[in-house]
Amino acid sequence: MSCTVCDFIKAKKGMLFEDEQMAIMLAPKPAVPGHIILAPKTHAAILEQVPDFVIGKMFDKANKVSIAVFETLGAEGTNILVNNGIAAGQRVNHFLINVVPRRENDNLSLLWQPKQLSEEEMSTIELKLKEESGNIGVFEKEKEKPKEEKKPEEIKEEQEEENYLLKQLERLP
Predict the structure, then answer these.
(1) What distance in Å separates the CA atoms of residue 88 and residue 50, rounded to the nearest whole number?
(2) Spelled out in words, what is the top-level CATH class assigned to the domain 4-102?
(3) pTM of the model
């Protein structure tokens, strides 16, 4: 099955940044000019399928993207959004973080009417969530990559650099 986001990543259209785990690119169908998306390179339909260490890195980069949007595009605000699942407005079958530049009176509405819940409803929801929240605080770490052995010439270069620095320190009064 083909994924439009995976295809977009492979084509490198509008690519602003990429590494082995994620891609940052201009949204192909932007909500406003300058709309940027961040996507894991490994296909994952929803947030829960993306490893914790990748999510952490993606939100770190989303923060940097937001700063860049303020500084370079003159945005007055940003929305950093995740539409996680069809019921939440997710339109593609690939997890994305959206960074949307905002300006006053840009006519893009993301507002909703808050609901007033009873104390009983709040207590019931709280109890249910507490029962299932045992894994909060458990962080999935990236597997360590095998360490590459250095070649003898690399070791020699490092030693020469180290000796040079030591000699320079010895010269100090």
Answers:
(1) 17
(2) alpha beta
(3) 0.76
